[in-house]
Records
---
Amino acid sequence: MPSFPRPRCDTQEGMSDFEGQAAVVIGAGAGIGRAVAILLAQRGASVACVDRDQDTAQKTAQEIGPRAIAVSADVSDETSVQTAFEQAENAFGQVHIAINCAGISGTTGKQSHEVELDDFDRVVKINLRGALVVSQTALRHMLQHNYGRIVHVASIAGKEGNANMIAYSATKAGMIGMVKAQGKEYAETGITVNALAPAVIRTDLVAALPDEVVTYMTDKIPMKRTGTVEEAAAMLAFIASKDCSFTTGFTFDLTGGRATY
Ligand SMILES: NC(=O)c1ccc[n+]([C@@H]2O[C@H](COP(=O)([O-])OP(=O)(O)OC[C@H]3O[C@@H](n4cnc5c(N)ncnc54)[C@H](O)[C@@H]3O)[C@@H](O)[C@H]2O)c1
């Protein structure tokens, strides 16, 4: 009979304990990224608040206090992402967690035959190529320590496809596929790669969308409401915790009952 490690049942450490760990949160200047950066810090992590908007990254870091640094980086520029991870490593010694919340919706409200390819390329560069840049950079740091938690924020649009949001839907589906492959590639290293697929969460990104687009998305949610950034942050924190140790390559649901598969 093979022996298996005993499951941990202590509640003193684990999902609520990030003491001694450092996180790089990309897109930490606003919305979901800001919320998870603050939550991880409240639970003991040191946090590099990374955003292409230096001012908002700085604001989040200031809100957190001495255990945070602010770094300006754009996921469409790999050199800036590499520099951000180096700065985090220099400040904190090791990067245990990378959470990628950077994303844009691109132009919405156009059917595929009307979509401008330049706009499509812009969304691909940030949402999909940017996700690969974040994973690659995080992996190169984490492989040195055989431990890491990489989490990308995808979207329900990537599972089901939102009409008239082709670039967004396609890039989030690509991100989900990337996470599946990376989960398998690094499954034996102590590094997990997962994603979160939210339905509508009330943030600036959603506030900027036309009302009819938000209604279209909310109507599909059985709970008939948008999610909150606190709900997204809580689930991201769990996925990024030591306790989430037997799940990789997976996209977690956060949809108020919309995606029950
Ligand atoms: N809000 C929702 O309803 C919802 C639903 C599903 C998925 N998502 C995804 O969650 C993630 C976060 O969304 P949000 O609603 O918090 O958005 P948000 O616009 O409120 O915040 C996104 C942050 O990312 C930063 N950012 C954007 N592009 C960047 C880049 N190229 N490099 C670095 N930083 C960049 C922005 O400056 C901003 O601070 C996105 O990937 C989004 O697609 C959001």
---
Amino acid sequence: MRKLLTLCLLSLAILLMAAPPALAGPPVQTGEAYVVQPGDTLFAIASRFGVTAADLAAANDLGNLDLIFVGQRLVIPGSGLLIEPAIVTESDEEEDAPPPALPPKVYVVQPGDTLFTIASRFGLTLTDVVVANGIRNPDYVYVGQKLVIPPPKAWAAEVSHPAPFAAIELSPEPVLQGQTLVVRVTLSEPATLSGEFDGRPLFFTGDDNGGWTLVGIHALQEVDIYSLALRARLKDGTESATAVNVVVGPGPYATENIQVSPGRENLLDPELIQAEQERMVDLWNQFSPRPLWEGTFAPPIASSRITSPFGTRRSYNNGPVDGFHTGTDFGAGTDTPIYAPAAGRVVLAEELPVRGKAVLIDHGTGVFSGYWHQSDMAVRVGQAVQPGDLIGYVGDTGLVTGAHLHWEMRVGSFAVDPMQWIETAMP
Ligand SMILES: [Zn+2]
């Protein structure tokens, strides 16, 4: 039984890395009613269906937002909302102009919809919609789900960017919540690149014919189409600007409740968590400007038993769902060795209240890997590590329910799925 469970978790993780992931999650009633599950809050249910808690409360005549009970049937209000970014309109002036590139849209699933009927309505095939949303089971759609509607093939003309932008590649496309997005820009002449995504600045690493940057997509980032702004400053000081659409698709994340062992609840003191978090943010904000790693990351531990995948929405001791699992947990016995998955420099090696005995490695360009809850650490701050170097041992220090390795990856201070880094060579 235990073996089977391990296998299931593992295959989930493998799917997460390789194939477009499925919409896993707690049992969700398709149709108009949702049955409240243990650990649910009105807010969490509302966000899962893409409606507000107030709308959900109003649709169900709930006077008290906190008062819902397991087994209660809630009507999910159909919003009918169709978010349409500014559509490029056809120009009559130039007959020979290429067809304009239509931007994708976000569609909110309505009662009675199937993926097939949605695809037909937008002049698409079922496959187009499945691929654009990373859907594994096309029968599993639910009312309120947000789907990315790509432009029909006939309209998806190549977007041309002003010089010196020769080509802009995004990978993966669409990018899912909690993944790392690679943006690669090819330039026709040397220039300094900069840009923004969702209000944050992007820092480019130059190469012979352009540059690249990595964008960490928040695991709870709203499914939507975002504009990523790009600028190129030429040697003579002139600047050229353009933008590309970034389609953020739904991640395959379930929801779970964590019971914290008696005697360790005091570790949940918000001030303690906050102080430690601020310390980490300081570390994430000071990074080596050049990449120190090369290619794919190696698994940091011989164990392939993933006890908790990245991204799972979490509540603690049946509290509200207000966070997500920021790393991948590997089950392994106390004192199992942990190895550096890639080259970098150790910037933290000490015992912290929540993370326990913790090691943080700076891999350059804002990429960090963290190893929490160790029984002992084998590296010092400032030490350079190579792939395969021993960094510490599995333990149960800090806020844990048992011995395991919590392996975390940060890109631009955002927690991203570490398994993508084992599968894919970045950039
Ligand atoms: Zn963990």
